[in-house]
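So, can you check?
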Amino acid sequence: MKRVSVQVAVLLLGLVALVAQAGEVLSVDGVSGAASVDRLGTHFDLKPGDQLSERDLVKVGAGGSLSLAFAGHGFIEMGPGSEIAIEKLPFASYADDLQTIFSFTRGYLRVVWKLPPQASTWPLFVYFGSQHGALSPGEYFFDDQSGAARACVAAGRLSVLPRAGGQLQELRPSACYRFVAALPPEKVLRESSAWIAVRRGFSIDAPSSPEALLAANDAGNDEPAAPGSAQPLVAPVQTRIAPPAPPKTLPPQPGPRPAAAAAGLAPPAPAAPSSASDGSGEWGVNIASYPAADDADRHAQQLRAAGYAATVQQAQVKGQTWFRVQLRGYPSADAARAVAGELQARFSYQGLWVNKTGPAIAPAP
């Protein structure tokens, strides 16, 4: 009899634990400004720790933001003026039916999602604009302003199907897509490093130039910039999602390319500008910044193959180590700008940053 009682007690404790987990699939992690939920006709403000459930309508006020923890395996961020309806949500992460549907109606939305190890499948859908979107594990951004719907894939795969019917589209990283009724998605490629600015600025129109990010950081700008302006260089938000696309390589110019162009560079340019020196000057050109030394070295080698004495310098930014690809040793800011202009013309760079970097290790071009 005693053994039976112990077994019953263990079962009850297990049941209590399961009940405690129920409803914790989606919870409020952080709130800035005004954020609220409409639940079956009842309206109340949200605070950290609140649990959300099926049929909730979540709203973020102007100037506010909201972060939601998603089943312990990802998170959702909502920007100012955003609104999502929770169409379907499992009662717990161990439920038989894990299908989850969010209906995003306006504002800004970021979804970072990793399939739980114990789940062989967890269908996750985001309805936005006139599209039904199915998300694989990855990182996604959605924007809907004045009825113009867009989606970005930083990592993963987004499958979209128009609500009115049509052809299924597979959207891949690293790109953004604009959706217009009766037309295929309009694709805009984006450098992987640009996602830093998107995460920071809550705008999928953030600049795509890693050089612009580096420039803003060196200028000491530590505040989120307005859309279209340079954003500060900060470490990407830590997630459990694998990093998106590989670092930037230099785009080739059209036309015939010699064997030396195997590194991905255009043919060597004509003579170096008259501003070239012996490399002893204090001014330099910042090309790009990478969190991994190997990526920076690879970029520098490409520049060396094109005739530029590129170096890699280590820097600490807010406790994060970055490796900067630079051309150093020019006698004046004007001389460095002349080289930056040549690079921009040859390789379609944007916003190269000129500052005092110190002498070059090897003679600058």
Observations:
- Residues 8-22, 208-275 have pLDDT under 50 and may be disordered.
- The helical segments are 2-21, 194-201, 210-218, 293-305, 333-347.
- The longest strand covers residues 100-113.
